[in-house]
Automatic annotation (TrEMBL):
It is found in: Cytoplasm. It comes from Alteromonas australica. Belongs to the DsrE/TusD family. InterPro entries: DsrEFH-like, Sulphur_relay_DsrE/F-like, Sulphur_relay_TusD/DsrE. The lineage of its organism: Bacteria, Pseudomonadati, Pseudomonadota, Gammaproteobacteria, Alteromonadales. One of its GO terms (cellular component) is sulfurtransferase complex. Keywords: Cytoplasm, Transferase. This is Sulfur transfer complex subunit TusD. It comes from the Bacteria. Pfam families: DsrE. One of its GO terms (biological process) is tRNA wobble position uridine thiolation. One of its GO terms (molecular function) is sulfur carrier activity.
Amino acid sequence: MKAYSILITSSPYHGDCAQRALAFIDGLLANGDTLKHVFFYGDGVYHCNNMMLQSGNDFYVYGAWESLASTHNTQLLVCITAAVKRGIVSQQEAAENGISAVNLTAPFVQAGLGEFFSELHQCERLVQF
């Protein structure tokens, strides 16, 4: 049994990255392995935008991450610097900067790179999508 960290760096609109990541996660959990966390970095932070809406029969990436978090109690960590650079704003950033809209909410949690690197010490495998 291995402990995994998943690193998401590509946009949810770039091919089938999200579907492949979630299928990989389903497989590792079915195998009895552990998912310690998912870390969203770079353009990967766009997965965390709660203003994305489901349209038609398209894959609803935001809902899929929400489901993963609630079903498996998975930490969804979002790089705070990458997020604010791309307009993904939590309640704290909105309040500090006088912004009325918030688009980063639970189950996604802000984290710094230092926290991500510390969490990696508990993992035996890092897989990037």
